[in-house]
Amino acid sequence: MEFTASQIASFIDGKIIGDETALITGVSPIENGESGHLSFIAQDRFSHYLDTSKCSVIIVSENLVAKDTYNPTLIAVKDAYLSFQVLMNLYQEMQGRKQGIEDGSSIHETAIISDNVYVGAFTYVSEKAKIGEGTQIYPQVYIGKGVKIGKNCKIDSGARIYDYCIIGDNCVIHSNTVIGGDGFGFQPTAEGFKKIPQLGNVIIEDDVEIGSNCSIDRATIGSTIIGKGTKIDNLIQIAHNVKIGQNNVIAAQAGIAGSTTIGDWNQIGGQVGVVGHIKIGNQVKIQAQSGVNSSVSDRETIYGSPAISYNDYLRSYVHFRNLPEVVKRINNLENNSKDKTNE
Amino acid sequence: MEFTASQIASFIDGKIIGDETALITGVSPIENGESGHLSFIAQDRFSHYLDTSKCSVIIVSENLVAKDTYNPTLIAVKDAYLSFQVLMNLYQEMQGRKQGIEDGSSIHETAIISDNVYVGAFTYVSEKAKIGEGTQIYPQVYIGKGVKIGKNCKIDSGARIYDYCIIGDNCVIHSNTVIGGDGFGFQPTAEGFKKIPQLGNVIIEDDVEIGSNCSIDRATIGSTIIGKGTKIDNLIQIAHNVKIGQNNVIAAQAGIAGSTTIGDWNQIGGQVGVVGHIKIGNQVKIQAQSGVNSSVSDRETIYGSPAISYNDYLRSYVHFRNLPEVVKRINNLENNSKDKTNE
Amino acid sequence: MEFTASQIASFIDGKIIGDETALITGVSPIENGESGHLSFIAQDRFSHYLDTSKCSVIIVSENLVAKDTYNPTLIAVKDAYLSFQVLMNLYQEMQGRKQGIEDGSSIHETAIISDNVYVGAFTYVSEKAKIGEGTQIYPQVYIGKGVKIGKNCKIDSGARIYDYCIIGDNCVIHSNTVIGGDGFGFQPTAEGFKKIPQLGNVIIEDDVEIGSNCSIDRATIGSTIIGKGTKIDNLIQIAHNVKIGQNNVIAAQAGIAGSTTIGDWNQIGGQVGVVGHIKIGNQVKIQAQSGVNSSVSDRETIYGSPAISYNDYLRSYVHFRNLPEVVKRINNLENNSKDKTNE
């Protein structure tokens, strides 16, 4: 990264206050500004950094500019937060996409690799797999038989995608995530547990992002489904036959047990557990660490293990914290009552 | 997959009702039947699908057949669920096992590879490791020094098995699971934590299945042990020196801390935590998300964090939910009592 | 491993009681001693094993020796536990470090590999990465662009370290851990969630050990930081922009949400969840499975979800378990009160 203040100002249509040749080579959060770095200030409570920051260039919301000169070069814009996002997106696009098949990858002769695809070294692509245009597959990835991956996806190093799974367009799968491992299905017998074959697959729709070290199991029959636009954090378990709708956000270390159905626009907190065979509606909020053991209607907010209404849980928890006092009050009442009886 | 109704009927000794040349190329769950697919109906509550399903062939329990002709071809058997399982197992066996050493694997000259073994590309087998007959090791697996793997195992892509660990016959280890990483052992000193060498190993007995992204740590000295027939789901932590008996089922994201001993035929729910140095008996059920901090006797069912008897937890939780009401009742009693005192 | 009793005695300056030529080829925990193995006894409650153990050689604290002869050969020292640790460390050092670049690794021509480095097969080192002296990188590791790794580190098989992350000296990163994956940052819009570029990095200071299957996300801008001497167990989530200080111990399956700051010498239990944007002080103890949703002062011990003072939680939990009885007492009081009113 190496830009002048005037280059940056031109990207975001900003007004320079100070040295337009100031050079930046990196980006800092405003609390830890470094010389030669760019940062931004969009809120009044950070505006004292305009005077004290070591950053060389700061993008600032124009209403926060109070003087004619500052130590750093400022770039004044309407909304510094938005302009900074625009800039970061631009920067990421400038990095370009990787392209080409690296030496040392293993691609089956029947696999179909579209144009402008990147396949890194030590990646293994099995028979009849199909990789869509512009998709980047980093080193050391495993792609099973008949897998279909759409356009413009990014599959990070060490991801594993098992036979016949389907991934849409514009998806990101982070490192060491496993898609299409066998579901956890066993028949109990007197001698032990007998494996139930897991013959379905996983379908991941367009615009899904899945973090690192997740396990998304294949269906017993049919498909485990992750709907369009859903974003899944790290270390998450999605069991066999789960169906997740569109635009959900699921935080790290949550787990969804088998055959549960989840609607659209839900927010599921970190370390939440959801039992199998239930239905979560739409726009539901599940607080972190909750244990959900029954179906949930649209727009509910829930908390606790087992999870109940968020407000009810908090109200009960206040009394839980106060239980020693509550019991003391009962003791007093009993003593009073006895006193009275003895009167 | 491509079978006619008559081929399927012959595998499971069923009676065809309809077109015996009907062709199936896949399998659907009955709720989402597709044309050209096979499904099954074993319960009365699904029998309306006999008339409405798009499936081409349906295996059905004979007592559910009420008419002479149906739209799909039916295959009537005594127990449709069992017959379907038989069929799925048959189908999986037909897929065959992979065999042979793929180009691009790295196998130490002192390693012993038995007959009919598959070793995928980019798999690394260290010195003096031994791989038993018929075992399949997928691409990108790491096998450490002196590791012993039994017969007919399947080790999925990206699994890591560290030095001197031992795996029995007929085991399945899924992708990105790490067996024999160092236990978490540090000596506190004034300057910081000093690593305690972890010199033991992990022993996995016959017929064990371990899901993806699990961490099974090696013992400090001696062995961490997973007993015969035990099934472990995804994202599970088994700490150093844990001993797990036979035929346990452990659900996703559970964690067992160091040196704990677990008997046989236990069921451990998802996201359960078990502290170190305790003893879980046999046939114990631990509900999901429980935190077990003391030893548990045979046949108990427990819940909560810290975990107590399942029924006691549920009973107390009912009152927990009702605490605001309970406290209101105490307020009333106190007011009444004051009123009386004032009388 | 093959040593005589006299060799071992010389390493730890011990006094032999018995056959000084006794040969050991392995190490057992004292509860499961094996012939030909070494063990140790440092506590009186284990001293009956001096007579019954099958071990060939036992290191024993001198105050526990009560007779002139025992079946196994004894090596008497002041503190058997410490001497055993010394011995195990010595043994591990004897194993030596791996060295050299294995065939089949892929190292970019602009990467800098220092002296005495090991790079295993199928490991991928990207452009301008720098690997310090004596560092061992096992097979199948991914090292991104511009990554800097210090001296004498060990990076286990399947670890992934993304672009521009920095790792200090003497660090251990276990298998399949992902360092520098994108933080989980999305802008909600009416059409769905828009990715916020994650352009920062991860900085891991000296003497840090990170277990297997962990996810340590890169900062949005700036750095996610793991401080000197901190030890992190398996399956742990550290979100973007988290700052962790020195000499912390974090147990398996814990998760720390974005932008939270953690001081020094804290102990964080297994499966703990910490919300984002809060501050944990120093020498704090967080009990396993706790959910921390507000800042915590130095030296507190906390428990519960949401977490409160450890003692308060336990006191309240005693009453929680007793709630059915508590409610019965209220019923009685109400009945008495009614009786009185009716009198």
UniProtKB/TrEMBL annotation, chains A, B, C:
Catalytic activity: a UDP-3-O-[(3R)-3-hydroxyacyl]-alpha-D-glucosamine + a (3R)-hydroxyacyl-[ACP] = a UDP-2-N,3-O-bis[(3R)-3-hydroxyacyl]-alpha-D-glucosamine + holo-[ACP] + H(+)
InterPro entries named among the record's database cross-references: Hexapep, LpxD, Trimer_LpxA-like_sf, UDP_GlcNAc_AcTrfase_non-rep
Broad enzyme group: transferase
SUPFAM superfamilies in UniProt: Trimeric LpxA-like enzymes
Gene3D superfamilies: Hexapeptide repeat proteins, MurE/MurF, N-terminal domain
UniProt key word Lipid metabolism: yes
Family to which this protein belongs: Belongs to the transferase hexapeptide repeat family. LpxD subfamily.
Protein name: UDP-3-O-acylglucosamine N-acyltransferase
Origin species: Chryseobacterium ginsengisoli
Underlying gene: lpxD
